[in-house]
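Its record is set out here:
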Amino acid sequence: MKSNYKPLGKYIQPVVGRNSDLGDLPLVGLSIQKKFIPSIANTIGTDMSTYRIIEKNQIAYGPVTSRNGDKITIALFNDHEKALISQAYIPFEVKDSNELDPEYLMMWFRRPEFDRYARFKSHGSAREIFDWDEMCNTLLPVPHPDKQREIVKEYNVIQNRIALNQQLIQKLEETAQAIYKQWFVEFEFPDENGKPYKSNGGEIIENEFGEIPKGWSWKEISSISEITSSKRIFENEYKNEGVPFYRGKEITLKKSGEIISEPIYISKERYAEIIKSFGKPVEGDILMTAVGTIGSTYMVRNEEFYFKDGNVVWFKNFKKSGANYFLYDFMQSEKFNSLIDEITIGSTQNAITITTFGQQKIAFPDDKVLDDYIKISHKLNKSLSNRKEQLLAMNSLKDLLLSKLATIEN
């Protein structure tokens, strides 16, 4: 053990405050993202005096670790001056912030290594608990306070850039969806005079599938692109290095530009064997999760990876150049969400089939409208892709900084 590793119990103490005065304070809970979130618990008829008070710069955690997978629910409270939390959580505080900075301590708790440590040290039969004594026995490096504050400052710079990038991504996504809705839901795409089509007398045709502008058609999704899955890969083929292998949850992380914290791989030899006979995703293809949380979509970039059969639907070989942007934007729309709800099957685990999804009809524009839309969508999605690449790089930098905490010297 390095000389600057100290037991955490030397620096922290429990917080025992109760809501005995029944103050009008917000009620919060903890998420596995290690954040405080507004509580959705029904407290009607509940004795609120039993709830605990947490104050700014204090930390709380959920001692029961067997319910949250690989994550420990723990967070630093900075949202308000005070709030209420359930008695199921253990709140505590740093005794002297001039010895241990609370934000520096929270950085340690954000490390995946701490999650694994807490799970390993948890005990119990019916449920596993990481109790207060085990928390106090946690060892961590405690450098000089100036060094701690320097590390926290660097971390916050990265976090602020991540937050800004996330805001820009959200704005781009909202813009893309607003344009899609205007063109393909409200039918207010520019007519030959550059004016909104429907509100300026554009002809609308109605049939059993609904209304569409004259010259448009209702097309099955399978007529827009080939819809398939991948060659089956068994778990005994998973490796610790090689070519990245994505399941549904990794596709969801890729879509949002987040880090895949514990990636799995298949060997380069197996990958080469598969793509030789089955092909591989190329830039512009679309992947969609098909099991569990259905409908998360990802447009493939210039990258090398493979994905799990059955869990992911693969859209490729689009019949018209640029139609992938039209289909991808449809997959971000409210209409798509409604469609998924209608065709999802399963009692224990939700799923959709390739055949059923491919048979669904959507309003497809004429060539002129589609070409004009593709020019706009391509620019927006290119900007989104670039922003998500930057977000991925910043998240990688953040994870690198957290990993270096273990090697900090005085």
Q: What stands out?
A: DSSP finds ten helices and 21 strands in the chain. The radius of gyration is 26 Å.
